[in-house]
């Protein structure tokens, strides 16, 4: 997918439509997918390793490059979760919104940037636009601390994005003796298809290597699976993007799961998971 854009004539992006920009961001997400599975000798080299690809793909309409995402719509490159349990890196690798700190395979909600002939002219694009205008998040400011002069290279701890979005508390609990990997199968099988109703949550770090459940009700009254009540914890969920699907396909809304950053002098949060809901 990426080489398709790499070999296109360079016109400065003058004639790019929203669909063109979405396609480019989708291609960029494919680059991030490949980066995630690469085992580098120095883990912090991931951003420098793909900086050339970022420069080759970038157009003015995509905006600024912000540690793995694009300011035009940085949230399109945040709708991912790790397929396998992640151990916190021993040293700082990247901001939590970026998958550069993860190892092994990550899973994407591909339909969040879906652009194809079968939805062109349908109500899907307009429905998505209406949702985004009313409920979509907005990037307000950014503070990326670069290690050197390369704005697409390694970044330092303390880098942050400031956003406005719709958020609410979300309650998460572990399910003992469950399959951590089933989320990958469910999301992959629903690409371009019909979603099943209900919530799903994928925590980035899960020491128990088990599945989790979530609810917007503090007593988890709508959860119909047995869960470990001793593991219930409250987080903040902010919705970032909606799938570009037909109404009958029951598009999901994707939300970042956040917890307040430790030792921060500001009201700051870090990503700890990803949720989807109807």
What does it look like?
The protein is of the alpha+beta class and 278 residues long. The protein has five helices and twelve strands. Helix 2 runs antiparallel to helix 3. The two termini are 30 Å apart.
- Beta-strand content estimate: 15-25%
What is the residue-averaged pLDDT?
A: 86
Major sheet details:
6 strands, antiparallel
* Structural class by SSE content: alpha+beta
Instruction: Provide the gyration radius in Å.
Output: 19 Å
Poorly predicted runs: none
Looking across the biggest beta sheet, what order are the strands in? 8-12-11-10-7-9
Number of strands: 12
How much helical structure, as a percent, in the residues? 10-25%
Give the ordered list of helices and strands. HHHEEEEHEEEHEEEEE
**What is the count of DSSP helices, taking H or I runs of 4+ residues?**
5
**Termini Cα gap:** 30 Å
Question: Shape from CA axes?
Answer: globular
């Amino acid at each position: 997918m990426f080489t398709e854009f790499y070999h296109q004539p360079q016109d400065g992006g003058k004639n790019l439509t929203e669909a063109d920009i979405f396609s480019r961001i989708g291609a960029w997400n494919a680059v991030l997918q490949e980066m995630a599975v690469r085992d580098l000798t120095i883990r912090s080299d991931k951003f420098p390793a793909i900086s050339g690809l970022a420069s080759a793909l970038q157009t003015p309409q995509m905006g600024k490059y912000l540690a793995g995402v694009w300011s035009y719509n940085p949230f399109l490159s945040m709708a991912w979760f790790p397929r396998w349990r992640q151990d916190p890196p021993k040293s700082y690798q990247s901001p939590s919104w970026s998958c550069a700190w993860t190892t092994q395979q990550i899973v994407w909600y591909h339909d969040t940037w879906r652009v194809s002939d079968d939805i062109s002219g349908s109500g899907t694009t307009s429905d998505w636009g209406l949702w985004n205008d009313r409920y979509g998040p907005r990037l307000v400011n950014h503070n990326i601390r670069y290690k050197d002069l390369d704005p697409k290279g390694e970044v330092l701890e303390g880098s942050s994005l400031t956003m406005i979005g719709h958020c609410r508390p979300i309650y998460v609990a572990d399910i003992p003796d469950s399959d951590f990997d089933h989320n990958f199968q469910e999301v992959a099988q629903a690409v371009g298809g019909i979603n099943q109703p209900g919530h799903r949550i994928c925590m980035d770090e899960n020491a128990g290597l088990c599945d989790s459940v979530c609810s917007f009700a503090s007593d988890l009254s709508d959860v119909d699976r047995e869960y470990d009540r001793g593991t219930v914890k409250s987080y903040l969920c902010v919705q970032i993007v909606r799938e570009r699907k037909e109404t009958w396909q029951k598009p999901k809304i994707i939300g970042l799961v956040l917890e307040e950053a430790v030792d921060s002098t500001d009201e700051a949060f870090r990503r700890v998971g990803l949720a989807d809901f109807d």
